[in-house]
Specification:
Length: about 110
């Protein structure tokens, strides 16, 4: 195996791992949001996990939905706001995953 072939193989495996990781995060969010009642503690843990793994989601969220106040106290965030934030993260991850799949498809089509 040449260095070029090894690099291509690594990139494909890395891309597949990223896609599987995003799908796992989406599945975790679905599980949390499908509970009745929804555990706000689990929502908060999942929000922190997604923000750590995909910090760009916060910036994009603020661009699409600009915050109304420049200052807020974390203690006053309503449970529904946390649920809405986790729902946003699910939508964001699904879009990111779809974009990555499309990008991989385009790369393969350029090779043909």
């Amino acid at each position: 195996m040449t260095e070029k072939e090894a690099k291509k193989c690594f990139e494909q495996v890395h891309s597949a791992k990223e896609l599987m990781d995003m799908q796992k995060d989406i599945d975790d969010i679905d599980t949390i949001l499908s509970q009745n009642p929804i555990s706000i503690e689990l929502v908060q843990v999942e929000i922190r996990k997604i923000n750590t793994k995909h910090p760009e989601n916060i910036i994009l969220n603020h661009i699409i939905f600009p915050p109304h106040n420049s200052f807020f106290n974390r203690g006053y965030i309503l449970d529904q706001n946390l649920i809405d934030d986790l729902t946003w993260k699910r939508i964001y991850l699904q879009a990111k995953k779809t974009g990555k799949l499309f990008d991989n498809f385009c790369k393969e089509m350029r090779k043909v």
